[in-house]
Amino acid sequence: MAFGRSARVEMEEKKRGGFSSKIGFVMAAASSAVGLGNLWRFPYLAADYGGGVFLLSYMLLAASFGFAMLVAEIGIGRMTRLSAVAAFRKLDRRFHFCGILGLLIPALITPYYSVIGGWVTKYIAVYATGADSAAAQNAFFGAYVSKTGEPIFWFLVFIILSGVVVLLGVDKGIERLSTILMPILLLLAAGIAVYTVTRPGAGAGIAYYLTPDFSKMNGKTILAALGQLFYSLSLAMGIMVTYGSYMRREDRIETSAFQITFFDSLVAFLAGLMIVPAVYIFSGGDESAMKAGPGLMFVTLPKVFHSFAGGRIVGLAFFALAFFAAITSSVSLVETVVSNVMDLLHWKRKPATVFMILWCIVLGIPSSLGFGIWDSVRILGFDILDFMDFLTNTLMMPILAFFTCVLVGFVLKPEKIIAEAQACGARFRTKRFFAFIIKWIAPVGIIAIMASFLAASFGWMNW
Questions:
Q1: Cα–Cα distance between 229 and 78 in angstroms, integer?
Q2: pLDDT at 183
Q3: Range 23-457 classified under CATH 3.30.499.10
Q4: Which end of the chain is flanked by fewer CB atoms within 10 Å, N or C?
């Protein structure tokens, strides 16, 4: 009887496709988690919220909140062998809406994320062709994104590359890309960090980044670290449910979740070492230069690279790093939608992928034009791209995360996920810790994130 069930599961996994190894799963999931937010958002938040205090808060939250949410989502995926919509419906029909959110979120994020990915691709071309001095000018980025044709061209290049990887399948496409790019990404991040911290005058910037400023240790610091972690680990996007559905049963969920968290946190930490000391040197210690948001990557950093010896090579390496982070995250977003479409409509991979790429083109072009000929279009005061970001990140993702905690913590009970994590004789040493976090800590943190981000978005709170 046991043999029959095992054979049946093996046949289902073979039909569905999956990762061929544990390292393949971890690299793919970590590559998904490591995105553009690690490279610009983490450094400026760390600089703004007390340096070492923010780092400490982030690492502690990653090992608790982040770990528990990863285990829950991966467990749901592997337990059901389904993507988000079908998985939540199978577990409890009352939570079917969670699966729908797990489809809508990546379907709405991918188009505008790919527009930004197109910007990164453009900057690689700029540095590769020796036009970095032009990129260092104040007006370059604004003039570029306000154009009509060129940003759309690079957006199309980026999203088509993402689609090609997904077309190749889980093991031959996503796993192979991730196992190649993730080590290169880590090496580039470490190399650029070493270059930055060895620049003359970098010591003050390193101290600024790493020295705890306990005067800034307050609720805002915790919420900022929690918010960064929430988005950094690809939580509440349906991604980890989808990737979990491709995970082999003999691989340990607990170990994999810790490894994904480690890689993501390592890249975020290295990003801070790459960027904060460099900007600190360039700006002469001006803290406002560290708080430029997306402009930090596309406006401030090109100036920094241009001011350094060998800056063109470093700039090219940095934007290659950013491209690798962007493309692996984009691939995971596309795959999540494709997997849902395949499960729901029983389509094959090729038509599902083509459908998703066409969808991204239709929604991505308005996001790009929102900085140019459609810049007068405003939705609740946001431009088109920022509105899509607000809709998904501030509203939909926290709702999905909260009800995922409710489902796992109080409906299924944590024991259901624990049993999945202990499949094939695997040990789950932190099961009590996981159960406590997913039931009592994570839901409160998610509500706090949503409330604070909503307040900041409408100017009710100075975030």
A1: 23
A2: 96
A3: no
A4: N
